């Protein structure tokens, strides 16, 4: 049965309600440890008790990184240097909406908790629609007539392994929302460019909207800058011949402007941090003396211990086990889209490239998301907390396409194992995280 937008919205709402229900039901089931800093803020805000139903419900969604986002949104500023691992757009949005809701200049911590959680859940529903439209547009361009395929791919996001983070005060849902819509819009722009011409109004409307979405992702999370990769492939796809030198120069001049526009929020964040810590204080921080001062990279290395092979320890073995499905799906994508198509022309590289490009006719921007997946997998395996792959991949639209391929074309036993993994992580995370136990 073909999926519709209405069904996607309905399932997205059901998914969030199920997550909230499980979290509320199991809160404090295994652990009574709480973040005392947030609790003190809550009680200092003239709240009479920590035993209200509202507090019990929403405290499930402010653990771990959620505490940082909540504190930054409450104070509308960074208190400490290590908090700069969290980009400001999401906390600013929570802060401003909380002020509007409260009708006062400074809100209570509880209002910020409620607003932040609501934003995440609403963004999840909107992200679901954006992902479904992306899948429909992609399969239409690739001339795949399987009408249930977009629905199956979207279903993996509707009940994701990153489940609890999509309802918590994390950036997962908001980032996914703008990322999925940006991906859909860039596909539409590419289609209109080939149909009506690069300089057509329809193309520019979709292109500008897509760049706006991608730009927002750069203000939400640092990996938003990777959206410049599909944008690059879009401009490669729509580029006029160099023989028409004026159009060629204008085309790539626009590409440069769009690229800068996409990464501007992250650049603005780095510049703001530089002036705050390196110019306006007498004793500057060590990272200020770097050739390219980058507070984000410094904080990741200094406070979060990111570094090559830093996570490759025997006690972290279980974390590597946890991400095996993501590695399998990624390897499968290389096999199905690249290796399989090259068997007939083993000695002809150009023929292989042509076959691959022909398969993705008029949607070259999709290549950018392949690069995102491969780059993130390799870089996180080498440098980062490997379990974070669960959250990162669940924000890439093409990953769900690959999951759909894997699920439908693999051995039934492997497909069933993937389904079991998805259900297990959906439920397990909703129990573990609210109890302040480590979950990715």
Automatic annotation (TrEMBL):
GO biological-process terms attached to the record: GPI anchor biosynthetic process
Keywords in alphabetical order: Endoplasmic reticulum, Glycosyltransferase, GPI-anchor biosynthesis, Membrane, Transferase, Transmembrane, Transmembrane helix
GO cellular component: endoplasmic reticulum membrane; mannosyltransferase complex
GO molecular function annotations of the record: alpha-1,6-mannosyltransferase activity; GPI mannosyltransferase activity
Enzyme type, top EC level: transferase
Membrane topology designation: Multi-pass membrane protein
Membrane-spanning ranges: 7-25, 109-134, 146-165, 204-236, 248-272, 320-339, 360-382, 388-407, 414-433
Entry's localization field: Endoplasmic reticulum membrane
One Pfam family this sequence matches: Mannosyl_trans2
Enzyme nomenclature, EC number: 2.4.1.-
Pathway: Glycolipid biosynthesis; glycosylphosphatidylinositol-anchor biosynthesis
Family: Belongs to the PIGV family.
Described purpose of this protein according to its UniProt entry: Mannosyltransferase involved in glycosylphosphatidylinositol-anchor biosynthesis.
This protein's name: GPI mannosyltransferase 2
Organism: Cryptosporidium parvum (strain Iowa II)
